[in-house]
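$ ./design --mode recover --in tokens.txt
reading tokens...
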């Protein structure tokens, strides 16, 4: 077969059935073969960064390898922000990129693609020649899984037209890693834990992936420890009597007071970044035990007192067994008073509503939509000032929350949501995005969502500005004019693309918007534009932001 057919065949041999792409000279024939010969679900994006973000959203929602394809030169340079996002999130992805013919250095789109990809932090895997295509594709996919980052498979155009005797490589079937802890590390950690009087358990996405919930619940009872999660563990302990919710900048008042007096934090599969630790203030004066399956994650953001490399479920069970053998007595940190305060806490009453005719308070908006939108859902949140409000929206399980702010870049949320919606077509996908991010990267892909007939519910928090920049200028007493923007009529544009729409300008409009969602036409995305005031400074659960 020809080289481009061999690349397609190798992808299919490794179980690739969905590819997000922007086609050009360098990848056109690979894409055509995938679609025609193999029936691969080839989804066209309007921009290369969006194709990569779609692949990441698909990977996060499906738990499988996300695959995107772009052409050479500007096709690849357009992906850089999205590639860095994938690197920051440690998402296994494969990006099949064409490259200019090796013999034509004067090609208009010639570029040192290896240097470009390396600078992004992604991995680079060249296809060396036509005879090594199957091996190189297999290596790239294995690297994506083992290195947990995007790998760019670089395919020179001339190789795509060479004839090759194709020999398939065995597909990769990665098995779950259940890494047991080192006894010395475990012993050191238990010494710290057993001597604490107010221990706290913190679970992150690593604990979720491990399936550690039951083991952590047992450990919490043994220790008398309240339970908290990182943002990516949202909802993991929902319904448990001593669930504090999110540990970090989004902590509510009752949780914040409890976190402040803890003397030991036992983190399972949480990165302990500055969001989770509220710029390390929540770890001040506490001893910290960090459990993670990846040794590189321990001491990466904060220096901990004890690190245990191992699977969260395995380590939690081992800790619980050893503590029970030692007849450890639970602490008195779990009190009836704490239980009652947590049961009585109402997030809708934790702030003063600042809505008025013409603009709604984003916190009230989120709380009302939270109650009215479908409960079985996945939620995708873009980056921006609005996200501190939007991230308080609940999900039925942690895996149903997909974020796109690992690099702090706005505008990646819509395409990430499209990928997630393709991966989970039976669930409505709610995407929360600011007006600036919507204009930067969301508007262009709305037509893609319509074309695909996705059950997408887009909520645009529209304050007519780049909000984070606006509020900085205002708080410093400077002129905020440069941060303000006159956008087009979002609802009119969305309707022209085929969406159902609703504009919210007062609290009364929120119920009408919920009705639009409840009565939405199957296969037709909904866009809700909510007008907010850029000068209203939100407080999240009483914390000034």
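writing sequence...
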């Amino acid at each position: 077969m020809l080289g481009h057919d061999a690349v397609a065949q190798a992808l299919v041999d490794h179980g690739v059935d969905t590819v997000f792409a922007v086609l050009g000279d360098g990848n056109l024939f690979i894409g055509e073969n995938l679609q025609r010969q193999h029936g691969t679900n080839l989804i066209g994006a309007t921009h290369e960064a969006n194709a990569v973000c779609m692949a990441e959203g698909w990977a996060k929602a499906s738990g499988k390898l996300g695959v995107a394809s772009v052409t050479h030169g500007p096709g690849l340079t357009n992906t850089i922000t999205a590639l860095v996002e994938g690197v920051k999130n440690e998402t296994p992805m494969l990006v099949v990129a064409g490259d200019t013919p090796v013999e034509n250095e004067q090609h208009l789109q010639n570029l040192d693609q290896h240097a470009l990809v390396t600078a992004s932090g992604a991995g680079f895997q060249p296809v060396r020649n036509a005879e090594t295509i199957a091996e190189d594709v297999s290596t790239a996919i294995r690297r994506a899984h083992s290195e947990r980052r995007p790998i760019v498979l670089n395919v020179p155009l001339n190789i795509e037209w060479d004839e090759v005797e194709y020999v398939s490589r065995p597909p990769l079937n990665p098995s779950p890693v259940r890494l047991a802890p080192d006894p010395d590390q475990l012993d050191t950690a238990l010494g710290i834990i057993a001597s604490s009087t107010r221990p706290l358990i913190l679970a992150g996405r690593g604990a979720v992936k491990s399936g550690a919930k039951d083991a952590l619940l047992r450990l919490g009872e043994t220790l008398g420890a309240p339970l908290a999660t990182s943002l990516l563990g949202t909802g993991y302990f929902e319904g448990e009597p001593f669930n504090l919710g999110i540990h970090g900048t989004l902590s509510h008042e009752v949780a914040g007071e409890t976190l402040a007096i803890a003397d030991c934090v036992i983190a399972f599969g949480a990165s302990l970044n500055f969001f989770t630790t509220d710029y390390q203030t929540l770890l001040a004066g506490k001893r910290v035990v960090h459990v993670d399956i990846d040794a590189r994650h321990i001491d990466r953001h904060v220096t901990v007192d004890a690190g245990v490399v191992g699977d969260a479920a395995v380590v939690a069970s081992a800790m619980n067994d050893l503590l029970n053998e030692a007849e450890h007595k639970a602490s008195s940190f779990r009190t009836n008073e704490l239980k009652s305060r947590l049961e009585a806490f109402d997030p809708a009453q934790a702030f003063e509503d600042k809505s008025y005719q013409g603009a709604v308070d984003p916190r009230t908006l989120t709380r009302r939509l939270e109650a009215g939108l479908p409960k079985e859902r996945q939620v995708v949140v873009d980056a921006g000032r609005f996200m501190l409000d939007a991230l308080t929206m609940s999900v039925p399980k942690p895996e149903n929350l997909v974020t796109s702010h690992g690099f702090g870049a706005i505008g990646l949320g819509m395409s990430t949501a499209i990928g997630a919606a393709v991966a989970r077509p039976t669930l409505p996908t709610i995407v929360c995005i600011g007006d600036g991010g919507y204009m930067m990267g969301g508007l262009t892909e709305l037509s893609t969502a319509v074309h695909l007939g996705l059950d997408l519910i887009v909520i645009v928090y529209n304050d007519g500005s780049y909000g984070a920049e606006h509020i900085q200028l205002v708080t410093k007493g400077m002129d905020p004019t440069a941060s303000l923007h006159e956008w087009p009529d979002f609802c009119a544009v969305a309707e022209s693309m085929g969406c159902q729409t609703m504009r919210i300008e007062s609290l009364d409009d929120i119920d009408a918007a919920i009705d639009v969602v409840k009565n939405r036409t199957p296969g037709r995305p909904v866009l809700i534009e909510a007008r907010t005031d850029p000068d209203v400074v939100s407080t999240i659960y009483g914390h000034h932001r």
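exit 0
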